[in-house]
Amino acid sequence: MRPRNIRRRFSRRSPRDTPEEKRLFDLLQRAYIESRYNPDFEITKADIDALLPKIELLRDVVEQVCNERLAYYDSRIEK
How far apart are CA 59 and CA 74, in angstroms? Predict the structure, then answer.
């Protein structure tokens, strides 16, 4: 699985056309690292509620890419 594949597919389905969409995308990227390593990282309930559909979309994209990769590897196994 290549991160570029995930990034490209996610970007196509998650627009960043408005300042709010861009802010939420940036927050999602920061949250991935900062929520684990920065004890001062905070996020509001409103932001979590706004990010939830994007997180679910990201999960679906990752699942799709992983399933495609597994199918590729499965097809390469001699049976």
Answer: 22
pLDDT in tens, the chain (79 residues): 566 767 777 777 777 889 999 999 889 888 888 988 999 999 999 999 999 998 998 899 889 888 988 999 999 987 6
Pinpoint the alpha helices (H) of 1-79. 3-13, 19-37, 45-76
**The two structure tokens encoding residue 51:** 């990010």
In this structure, the number of other CB atoms found within 10 A of the CB of residue 61 comes to: 20
The answer for residues whose C-beta is within 8 angstroms of residue 51's C-beta and 6 or more apart is: 24, 27, 28, 31
- Measure the N-to-C terminal CA separation of the chain; round to a whole number of Å: 23
